[in-house]
Amino acid sequence: MDKALQVREFAGLAGVTVRALHHYDRLGLLRPRRTAAGYRLYGRRELERLEQIVALKFIGVPLKRIKSMLDRDSAALPGALKRQRTVLEEKRRLLDHAIEAIRNAEQAFAEGRQPDTAILKHIIEVIEMQNDQDWSAKYYSPEARAKIEERKKEWTPELQEQTTKAWLDLFRDVEAALGDDPGSERAQALGARWKQLVGGFTGGDPGVAAGLNKMYADRPNWPAHMKETMAPFSNPKVWEFMGRVLKCASIG
User: For the chain, what is the domain count?
Assistant: First the structure.
């Protein structure tokens, strides 16, 4: 690319839309030179930066984060790539499980028998796991999502069963204490159990905790399957009471 190109020529060469280039310019992500008349001019430098933008956007890095990485924090690029790789590897793992479950069902049909109920149930479970990951990703930053994926490697079915039981027990106990003073000894003990269980998911990471708070604040917009899964934990009086309990704890 030996000469400067105006926006339409450059868009055609780079394989992007003029609208995208205008958007990147408004964000300060890709700022071309300007002619005296105000027309945008793009050269080799802009093409190289655009290729970086497109690559990072393709693997899921948000545009604001791309700008920060390319402008001021280029040393963070390897770490960002590693985090995105972790997220993509987890997606691949879930897809591999779904494909294997479907393959087992196909094999059963090919052999002239009905697939075992457990096989069909497994297909539903792994696809729902993929759906859960996709819909909830919007609440978390890329860094928080990568940390969640790392923790999932240690999250066994047995641990999930124990955690679910602990939450069910806690909700039952909170419902029995709804008439208590939020600052009472019993209420504060419930608050400690609540924070411990939340910490088991967040690992104490503020980014993960912030994403979790956003997700729970958006409960009316959860997908149907998630609302069904969380139905035992949907009593608004419990959430309201625990909010007051935790507020008392933070004040105290």
Answer: 3
HSE, side-chain direction, 13 A CA sphere, residue 96: 6
Report residue 86 as tokens: 């972790």
Mean pLDDT per 10-residue run, the chain (252 residues)?
A: 85 91 93 92 92 83 82 68 72 76 77 65 60 69 78 74 90 94 94 92 88 86 77 88 88 59
C-alpha count within 13 angstroms, C-beta hemisphere, residue 144? 20
Contacts (Cβ under 8 Å, ≥6 apart) of 232: 168, 171
- pLDDT, position 178: 94
Q: What are phi and psi of 42, to 5 degrees?
A: -120, 140
Which pLDDT score, from 0 to 100, does residue 130 have?
A: 56
The pairs formed by 193-201 with CB atoms below 8 angstroms and a separation of 24 or more are 193/166, 194/170, 194/242, 194/245, 194/246, 195/246, 195/249, 197/163, 197/166, 197/167, 197/170, 200/163, 201/151
**CA dist., res. 153 & res. 131, Å (int):** 18
Buried/exposed 95-121: b ≥16 CB within 10 Å, e otherwise: eebbeebbebbeeeeeeeeebeeebbe
Q: Output the pTM of the full model.
A: 0.50
Check which CATH number belongs to the domain holding 36 and give it: 1.10.1660.10
**Same-domain status, 159 and 246:** yes
Let me know whether 82 and 108 are in one domain: yes
168 and 246 together in one domain = yes
